Amino acid sequence: MSKALDFSGRAVLVTGGTQGIGRAIAERFLAHGADVLVCARHVPASPPAAGARTAGFEPCDVRDAGGVARLIEAVIARHGRLDVLVNNAGGSPQAQAATHSTRFFDKIIELNLSAAFYCAQAANTRMQVQPEGGNIVNIASVSATRASPGTAAYGAAKAGLLNLTQSLAMEWGPKVRVNAIIAGLVATGNAEAHYGGPAGLARVGASLPARRMGEPADIADACVYLASSLAAYVSGAALAVHGGGERPSFLDLAQAPAGTNNLEHKHE
After folding, report:
1. pLDDT per residue over 94-136, tens digit each?
2. Closest C-alpha to 91, from 185, 155, 17, 163
3. What's the whole-model pTM score?
4. CB-based burial of residue 165 (10 Å sphere; 0-12 exposed, 13-18 middle, 19+ buried)?
5. Which residues are identified as catalytic?
6. Per-residue b or e along 9-38, where b marks 16 or more CB atoms closer than 10 Å to that residue's CB
């Protein structure tokens, strides 16, 4: 293991770290020697693990600022320090902006933006007084950088998270580096249902320059890099981990035979 990627003796907190991308992030830091604590609202059937090493768990609803404060205290009580925070908790069901409630909008913003700020603020208080400082990694989404039909509130929250990342990096440096990952289309446990089954997953993957959808491990590796000394001069950045990006649909429509799409226009 490269010394730069050796996290032995360092404490890492991953929110939403019991499943999917968060679990992969926790397990990758464990594999690199870190002491890892994960949080979620519900106790997992099994904690994230790598070899003989397992992550600790604390129940927490990260939308509750008071609960977040207690979560950070729990990390310090267990490990005496907090070196890395990964704000991974988030997500949204499909909902049409024309009809979903204002309460729904508020809840999505709370989970995907406000909660990340609560965690970052509490973590920064501790990291600023540590000689080594600390690192915060915010998991954003390609929904932050393009239209997000069906998940408008989620896209808006993740766009806000990118701006928040830049602002916090400016305010909290040099002791604390703050970066974001723009996660692309990732094949998690719920991906098949979201993309229409195995055939849908295959079609989506084939449309990307990487010729596959992302895996949780791809996001985990990016987190380890951003939290390591290899990224010592990287702060306020938004690292796109999306396999090259989604192909613009107009490219295919422009090549289709005349009459097969609604982009033909007659100018009188």
Report:
1. 999 999 999 999 999 999 999 999 999 999 999 999 999 999 9
2. 155
3. 0.92
4. buried
5. 154
6. ebbbbbbbbbbbbbbbbbbbbbbbbbbbbb
